[in-house]
Amino acid sequence: MARNIAYYAGHGEIRLGVVDRDGRRALAIEAADDGPGIADIEQAMEDGYSTSGGLGLGLPGARRMTDDFEVVSEGAAADAAHRATDIVAQHPAEPLRTLFGLCHEALAVTRGCAMTLTRIGLDDGSLGWLGVGNVAASLIRMSVDGSVSRQSALLRGGVVGYQLPPQLHVRHTVMLPGDLLLIGTDGLASDFAENTRAGQPTGELATYILEHCAKGTDDALILALRNRGPSS
Fold it and tell me: Within this chain, do residues 120 and 188 fall inside the same structural domain, yes or no?
């Protein structure tokens, strides 16, 4: 991996860390660079494929030596994300299921993406949400007695642009004044919404989650949104 960074990107980093995997300590190795990216990750993982005339064994060889291996090319990932964002921006009034279908068609020529969409009614606080992949969303409510309740978006397996579930069902609930909505990527611990201080200002809360719940092995992103009630 270090040779690939030196050859294709010129410079980069190799980061080592110890992580917990199902109660066992594991060594995590992250190779990162600011190179041009990989246009076709699936093809790059094939034995013998090389764009430089080499043996083409670097990435597939590294995969065989690990229990868990993932390649993320920001160029390819960013392309998919931008296409999905454009579709949603161009069709803001479409039902969530329709938006997933439109994004799925537009992302067919990309690596695809995980996606969670949430629509909030500004007048009545109605909330509909749906997710494909591993972008988690939770609605947190604090009652007057200090108790906390949580609802989560239903996440379906699949990749937008590659494989959608046969049935997509939007769940509906209500976001009351004071409720907190958290949406986070898989670079955060799966219980990030449970280990939060829901009463904090959203900016402080987002910083706390990133500092205390980021895995360190993948990009972490969090959106924190609170219903502040009707404006006067």
Answer: yes
